Amino acid sequence: MKELALVKKLNGQAGRCAAADMTLDGIARFGHLAFVAYGLWLWFGGKKEARQARRTAALTAFAGVVLCSLLSWGIGRLWQRPRPFAEDGRIWNFTGHKANASFPSNHTMNSAVVAAVMLRAKMPGAKALAALSAFLGFSRVFAGIHYPSDIFGGAAIGLLMEAAVLASAPVRTLAARAAALSVILEKALRALWR
């Protein structure tokens, strides 16, 4: 299998440069938390005038993550693709990841759907999120926990979910109404606390 050979070759570079290893290990393990922090900033931070637009984007992205995760769960029930380190004992699983289903890469899929939503909504930092999504995918191949097709498949699912479902008028309208309601409730709560 050519993909396994590619993963083995990339993973074989681990241990040569401590700084690169620590960076890629950190991104493979914790890179998704940058998306969580970004979502919290969208919800609570920034200028008050743009709060509803940011919250609409955050809710849309959250819906995308939920829908993608459900789809991934279904795929995992139908196809239990072994992870590269489970296929070849010479691949170093330095993240300590468990040997569950490899396809699709949930980290890549969810980060891709979030980045796509943010790009469509023209949110600040959206391009950086897209770059981080790609880097997150690469780090997981380097770590020996995904094949390249897991990464590409996850990204494709995330992008298709955004284009086919999240960009639809009903989803955008529902997210916008929920965001508007959250802003109204926040103002009411602030008024009560004064």
In summary, what is this structure?
With 194 residues, the chain is mainly α.
Q: Report the CATH topology name.
A: Vanadium-containing Chloroperoxidase, domain 1
- What is the rounded Rg? 19 Å
Strand content: under 5%
**Average pLDDT over all residues:** 91
Q: Which parts are unreliable, with pLDDT below 50 for 5 consecutive residues or more?
A: none
Helicity level, as a percent range? over 70%
Biggest sheet descriptor: none
The span between the termini is 65 Å
Total number of strands: 0
Structural class: mainly alpha
CATH architecture assignment: Up-down Bundle
Output the CATH homologous superfamily.
Phosphatidic acid phosphatase type 2/haloperoxidase
Globular, elongated, flat, extended or rod-shaped: what is the shape?
Answer: elongated
List its salient traits.
single chain; 74% helix; Vanadium-containing Chloroperoxidase, domain 1; 194 residues; mainly alpha; 9 helices
Structural notes for this entry:
By secondary structure, the protein is mainly α. The protein has a single domain (2-193), classed as Vanadium-containing Chloroperoxidase, domain 1. Helix content is 74%, strand content 0%. The chain has 9 helices and no strands. It has helices at 2-11, 18-30, 32-44, 51-78, 84-87, 106-120, 126-142, 148-166, 169-193. Helix 3 (32-44) packs antiparallel against helix 4, helix 4 (51-78) packs across helix 9 and helix 6 runs antiparallel to helix 7. The mean pLDDT is 91.
Task: Detail the topology: elements first, then pairings.
Blueprint lengths: L1 H10 L6 H13 L1 H13 L6 H28 L5 H4 L18 H15 L5 H17 L5 H19 L2 H25 L1
Helix pairs in contact: 2-7, 3-4, 4-6, 4-8, 4-9, 6-7, 6-8
